[in-house]
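Retro notes - structure team

What went well: the batch runner handled both jobs without manual restarts.
What didn't: labels got mixed up in the shared folder, which is why I'm recording both outputs here explicitly, each with its sequence directly above its tokens.

Job 1
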Amino acid sequence: MHWINAIAMVIMIGSGWEIYNDEIIFGWLTFPKWAVIGPWAAPALQWHFFGMWVLGLNGLAYLAYGIATGRLRRKLLPISPREFIADVKGALSFQLAHDDITVYNAVQKVLYVGVIAIVIVQVLSGLAIWKPIQFPTLYKLFIDFQSARLVHFIGMALICGFVLVHVSLALLVPKTLVAMVTGGPRTPESKP
């Protein structure tokens, strides 16, 4: 599910940048042609919808699996503020231990819970942009079309930031790269 999400995110972000270029929010910001997916807005929208369905279905499967098996609760909860502050200090001083890569530290927990929340807001703001007539209450939640677009854009920027941090930290702890490709080491919960 991790790699399906990664591919879908690339499609969503690249096509979203081309859609953004067609109706710019910030006059000083446009995305270069080499970084976008789709030659103009209409094909980019088709790519965006494709990525949306892949990401949406995969995300629902991930959440259903995580909730049904208790994996989300085991991996992401509880989050202790004290542990979070200590782990942030450890990360900033490059002294955060990663002896057991099957256990998330407090920073990882906050980032993963945060990105799940952002993706949920992305889905809601995306629906408000895509189908404002069909989802009027959702549309009103974001006040108007431009506000929904701004929320959607900020969410995309936060996801891009998450991806940068995620990849950077994975490169700093090389044994996690192998786990990302192989599915990780066997744990008691993963053994048949």
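Job 2
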Amino acid sequence: MSEPTALEACPIAPVVDLVFSRWTTPILWTLNEYGRMRFIELQRRIGVITPKVLTQRLRQLERDGLVVREYYAEVPPRVEYEISDLGRSLAPLFRSLAEWSGNLAKVDAARRHFDETEPAHRRP
């Protein structure tokens, strides 16, 4: 009997890699929550992301079909981004994660308990 592939072992792994890579989730969540916006608006909403990284992630998300980029040939040129229908299909996942975030206080409490009761060699 052969070892299962990573996909067979965890069929959601490719989804996690796609949606939860660094900066992807805040970008998609922001576009889903606030709608179409210009680059600078998106950067301000996210906060600590650099323009270079935001540009890279938006290009990847556009390539993946999760974000739509609209270019307006005006003076000065205008570019807007919005979540695609495919990206919007992640909204229930975002909603579930937002609801689950209420458990973060329990995670903090569990960590404190672990740190107080476990020997140092067992701590991460």
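One thing worth noting from job 2: Strands lie at 37-38, 67-72, 78-83.
We'll revisit the folder naming next retro.
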